[in-house]
Amino acid sequence: MGRALRADAERSVRAILEAAERVLAEDAGATMEQIAEAAGLTRITVHRRFANRQALLEALAVSAKQQLVDAIEDARPDAAPALVALYRVTANVLRVKNTWRFTLSHATAHTAAAASLWAEIDAHTVKLMVRAQHEKLLAPDADLDWMRQVYYALLSEALNKPGGDQDPDVLAALVIDTLLHGGGPRD
User: Fold this and answer.
1) pTM for this entry
2) Handedness of CA 72, 73, 78, 79 (dihedral sign)
3) What's the rounded Cα separation, in Å, for the pair 29 and 100?
4) pLDDT for residue 2
5) 158 vs 162, higher pLDDT
6) At what angle do helices 112-134 and 82-99 cross, to 10 degrees?
7) Which of the 8 DSSP states describes residue 185?
8) Is 51 helix (H, G, I), strand (E, B) or coil?
9) What is the pLDDT of residues 46-77, one digit of tens each?
10) What is the SS3 assignment for 178?
11) How much is the pLDDT for 155?
């Protein structure tokens, strides 16, 4: 019986988080009651899982960042040349970021768990940038911290690209091309 309750509780939490992302994306000031309604649950159930709005925002931050980590790891970045790995990671991350637009684009709660996940994301990114530099995709004197920041900015901008194709694979190619070649002429 405990096992079924646990599965039920996990489904409720997942439904609440997904509903919260949708509702807050439309109205950042939405109430817990509006989120409960969107999740198809009672307000009491939502409050049983999340004591208050802050706890819900913290859970959103952790869930979104964990999905980013999973997306990076699912791309198996160590199993391919840096260019291929960079493309796979970028496409996977864009898919997650598209799903969690509100949570990942707004200042979200930075709990120890969320901060730890962000550090893990940064570590994966830096490792990939180092590999790209060793494989001569980036200049030997490129500032990798700056390249990481530019990469993150390009990811955000790709999702906000007006018109055009919003396919994550197409956007990943655009991000990687811009990161590696900028906007200058090709030789």
Assistant:
1) 0.85
2) negative
3) 17
4) 44
5) 158
6) 150
7) P
8) coil
9) 999 999 988 999 999 999 999 999 999 999 98
10) helix
11) 94
Contact at 8 Å (CB) between 88 and 76? Answer: yes
Q: Which two tokens stand for residue 91?
A: 């496409």
- Gap between the Cα atoms of 69 and 174, Å rounded: 22
The CB density around residue 9, as the number of other CB atoms within 10 Å, is 13
Sequence spans of domains, the chain: 1-50, 59-181
For residue range 13-33, what is the model confidence (pLDDT) as tens digits?
999 999 999 999 999 899 999
Q: CA distances (Å), 139 to each of 34, 37, 144, in order?
A: 51, 52, 10
Place of tokens 């869930």: 63
State the burial class of residue 26 (Cβ atoms within 10 Å of its Cβ: 0-12, 13-18, 19+). exposed
Residue 180 · residue 119 · CB < 8 Å: no
Q: CATH for 59-181, among 1.10.357.10, 2.60.40.2250, 3.40.50.720, 1.10.1060.10? A: 1.10.357.10
110-115's contacts with Cβ under 8 Å and 24+ in sequence apart are: 110/61, 111/58, 111/61, 111/62, 113/62, 114/58, 114/61, 114/62, 114/65
Residues in the chain: 187
With a cut of 70, say whether residue 171 has pLDDT above it: yes
